[in-house]
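Hey, quick one: can you model this chain's 3D structure?
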Amino acid sequence: MKRFLDIVFSLIVLLLLLPLWLVVALLIVLDSRGGVFYSQLRVGKDNRDFRLYKFRTMRTDADSKGLITVGARDSRITRVGYYLRKYKIDEFPQLLNILKGDMSIVGPRPEVRKYVDLYTPEQMRVLSVRPGLTDYASIRYVNESELLAASSDPERTYIEEVMPAKLALNLQYIDNQSLAEDFRLIFKTFLAIFKH
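Sure thing. Here's the predicted structure for all 196 residues.
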């Protein structure tokens, strides 16, 4: 049932938001050099890599300067990218990942291999389900980049504090998942975005 709802919801939202996609694509092209979309290898269900899609919000060489975004005004983020990130519009292309079966609407956010390689055996349980567009951690850490910007060593703070806390929330979801909980998480995600 969850997979069926993922497909139906993604198709409906993709069709409804098509005009917005065209506007966003135009703004990205006018704002900075590079393509409209950005893709990155992430780790999904059963520890398998997949290519995650987003609207591009950074300059084209951004990955070479680190994988963690530090602060809302990270110098790598484009002017348009700032607003796309703030309102989570950059995440919309992941609806394509959901249709492909790489992701679900609700589930642990997919991580890059560099950080997955640091997981404990217990934390690896997050890879037993499809990763999602939203989860408890997305709501709790809606201001993650600002939190990391306040650290003298953002990567260390992420690895030692933020990542373990997010994984604990993901494991909590896995142990208590249900369609009712998924709908609650979707509702809470919209509230968090609007409040942020």
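One thing worth noting: The chain is about 50% helix and 10% strand.
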